[in-house]
Design goal:
Number of helices: 17
Largest sheet: 9 strands, mixed
Distance between the termini: 8 Å
Strand content: 15-25%
CATH architecture of the largest domain: 3-Layer(aba) Sandwich
Number of domains: 2
CATH class of the largest domain: Alpha Beta
Mean pLDDT: 93
Helix content: 25-40%
């Protein structure tokens, strides 16, 4: 970590915004008459960052942003992973040793192998107050890291803030008070309709031009503007209750926000409702900064906002410019591989399964039959090379030869044979479940860093691994 010669601000707010793109911010620039995005666009350091690993549209990007290292080091390769012992797919952050608070989900940052920016803050300032608020559990936990005071997320079904007991304070008291007051239910009872005349939007669909759009917020809560409002409200409630930013020990608020509406299939704005999400987000960020100005003073806090690729460019948009997206079925590839090995070695279960870009062989059987694992790995790799859409296949240990695979894969989750798809191919687990939501070759994210005091800013471009050190 770079040692700064400047005093740390009393409060750092880090917001990871799902689907936020530089292109959308530029498109909507004329709308920012006031608000948080207007302030950031005028006063913040701005750049775009790329990821030095494959991006699937999950929290592998959040883990990289938070830790400053790639998945081969932080261990979070995809949101779920294949476990050999039971041949099932598990969530990356599951932890049966901790209980959920208001939820059955048992998760922690135990499986995250590297320090996060919150961990570094705790090591530098043991008395720091660190809280994470999310819309999804995994994102919230990754932003909280190992050493936050508390971490909570929104349960849209129960309309409550819930948490994991992995952190010392459990559910923050401010979240408990909002649950008691029914604040989430109050906002969920709203009807979401356009905030402007439909002709004012830049990208309404044909259906929206005719009828606009309307949602019962309760039905789409996580993808409605009210979700961001609730995160901002709770952040300010925690800041007030815990007196964050009011002494000389730096504190951190970690927030997950969203720009993707219920009908969104792309990070690019393609509807009035998605545009509306940005307009409301601008207002909510403006309210956050306005309140912090009043409570702790403009020179005592800093705000870092970074986008997270979720869908990238949708398949239809690419098809419209004659770049169709084709799908690669991992389960089908595993089944065909099993059949191939049966033809070579007999009718046995030679393949345990497939997940992501890995084929998992039945090592126990191979050992019992006294066969060469290395030989079978090479045979399977050669077999996969004949599959349409496969660019390269190899035994798992050879991933080090390919920089993008080497940074993407973690040793403890990598299969016996791995493969990389050609551009224009989307990775599917089966006919219905997508692994690779982002189909752009090299997705980038916008980054805006605002500080109320003089701070050194980067002089050169940097990638996602440089974000964690930016705030120190």
């Amino acid at each position: 970590m770079t040692v700064s010669l400047y005093a740390a601000p009393r409060l750092t707010v880090v917001a990871v915004v799902d689907g936020l793109t530089a292109e959308n911010l530029a498109t909507l620039r004329p709308y920012w008459q006031q608000g948080g995005i207007r302030t950031l666009s005028e006063e913040a350091f701005q750049t775009t960052i790329a990821y030095p690993h494959l991006v699937y549209g999950g929290n592998e990007t959040t883990a990289t942003l938070m830790t400053g290292v790639t998945p081969d080091r932080h261990g979070y390769t995809t949101d779920t992973y294949f476990v050999r012992r039971d041949r099932k797919v598990h969530t990356m952050l599951e932890d049966e040793t901790v209980r959920g608070i208001g939820t059955k989900q048992q998760i922690s940052a135990k499986n995250l192998l590297s320090q996060t920016m919150t961990d570094k803050m705790r090591l530098s300032y043991p008395e720091a107050k660190i809280y994470a608020i999310g819309l999804q559990p995994s994102t919230a936990v990754l932003m909280a890291g190992h050493a936050a005071n508390a971490c909570c997320w929104l349960d849209p079904t129960e309309q409550l803030w819930v948490a994991t007991a992995a952190y010392s304070e459990g559910l923050p008291s401010a979240a408990f008070e909002q649950n008691k007051a029914g604040r989430i239910a109050t906002l969920a009872a709203r009807q979401w309709t356009p905030r402007m005349d439909m002709l004012t939007y830049t990208a309404p669909t044909a259906q929206e031009r005719k009828k606009g759009f309307s949602y019962d917020v309760k039905q789409v809560l996580l993808n409605a503007p009210e979700a961001n409002t609730l995160v901002i409200e709770l952040a300010l409630a925690i800041q007030k209750a815990e007196k964050m930013g009011m002494d000389n020990t730096p504190d951190m608020l970690m927030l997950q926000l969203n720009t993707l509406s219920p009908a969104a299939h792309s990070d690019r704005i393609a509807s009035a409702e998605q545009e509306d999400m940005y307009l409301w987000l601008n207002q909510d960020l403006g309210y956050l900064m306005e309140q912090l100005d009043k409570r702790i003073g403009r020179t005592n806090y800093q705000v870092l906002v970074v986008g997270r690729p979720i869908f990238g460019t949708d398949a239809q948009t690419l098809s419209d410019i004659h770049m169709p997206v084709q799908q690669f079925n991992a389960d089908r590839a595993a089944a065909l591989t099993g059949t191939y090995l049966m033809a070579l070695y007999g009718h046995e279960r030679w393949v345990d399964g497939a997940y992501g870009q890995s084929i998992y062989l039945n090592r126990t059987l191979i050992e019992q039959k006294r066969l060469s694992l290395e030989t079978i790995q090479r045979q399977v790799a050669n077999f996969l090379m004949d599959f349409e859409g496969v660019q390269i296949a190899m035994p798992g240990h050879e991933a080090v030869r390919y920089p993008m695979l080497n940074t993407t894969l973690c040793k403890r989750h990598t299969g016996d044979v791995i493969f990389l798809l050609q551009p224009g191919w989307q990775l599917m687990q089966d006919e219905k479940h997508t692994i690779d939501k982002v189909i752009d070759d090299n997705p980038v994210s916008p980054l805006l860093f605002w500080s109320g005091t003089i701070r050194p800013m980067p002089q050169d471009q940097f990638d996602a691994t440089g974000v964690a050190d930016l705030i120190f």
